[in-house]
Amino acid sequence: MSSSPDIRIPSELLPSDGRFGCGPSKVRTAQLDALVADASTYLGTSHRQATVRNKVGEVRDGLRTLFNLPDGYEVLLGNGGTTAFWDAATFHLVSEQSQHLSFGEFSSKFATCVKDAPHLKDPIIIKSDVGTHPVPEANSDVDLYALTHNETSTGVAMHIERPKGATGIVAVDATSAAGGLYVDPSQFDCYYFAPQKSFASDGGLWLALCSPAAVERIESIAASGRWTPAFFDLKIALDNSRLNQTYNTPALATIHLLASQIQWMNENGGLEFTTGRTARSAEILYSWAEASPFASPFVTNPDDRSHVVGTIDFTDEIDATKVASILRANGVVDTEPYRKLGRNQLRIAMFPAIDSEDIALLCGSINYVVGALAN
Q1: Residue 17 carries which DSSP code?
Q2: What is the rounded distance in angstroms from the CA atom of residue 182 to the CA atom of residue 279?
Q3: Where do the structural domains in the chain lie, given as residue ranges?
């Protein structure tokens, strides 16, 4: 690849914060300040003692408030991130057979985990082209419906609803959606995610909002005697979560940053506040792309365009990779497309911590770079 020209974007056009990555994502300065303030009494202490367990309790109570969880719903957490949770779900959420919607890199991975599990039937997989999403279909043989709220690789979001007539539980991968897109808890049984996206923390932790039906599924499979490695045992995770701890030692800084972000979200109005911010950012980004002579939204159906991950295609005359490289040289980072999608595009995070004004300035910076490249 040829080197990019040395183009300096005027300071007045640059975003105040240049982090637009889809995970790890921008961490607010106030979160870091809060961690530093507590560092001497929090970091380096036992995760089994009150100092850390109280912080885990803050996370669990804060998520109950943020998502307005009904009575009986529980907040579980464990180490390993969403990738580990997919494996755990093959042991303690899928009884025999699952149905999966596959419309991008990440929505396909849970289906692969289930397909490789020797104790389960092959999953039913419903696919659609990248840039779109399929819809689930009620099936009496299915005991778990695996949905994805937001496909991080493509910028496609879908409305979460239980399939009409379905009797199985509904599990939703919300890794890049949770906290930035609205969801009705009555429409899911397990809404699971990691904290390095909308929650502006680090990875390596999974969280799951579980309905009574999901809890009953976990407990009944555990009682059946199905062998499970302890690290993937959701019954162990359930028991430990009720004690405000994880089975094995978590990253304490991750939990603290997460708690601060949840507190900020709730103090400012909860999901109404956070989804309002992401909706405004998405309006700015997609309106700019639709009006641009060289850019356009990759997702053609406006109803399917994500408010947290925006994918913008460029015309063949513009090398998006070069644009991203020049942006990076100017301190505007992580706008590159998802590597396996292979499109001439930029991928831009619009999580709640990202100011909408910075999205507007990013659009202006891209215009400047493209204009400079043309001269």
Answers
A1: S
A2: 10
A3: 11-26+270-374, 45-267
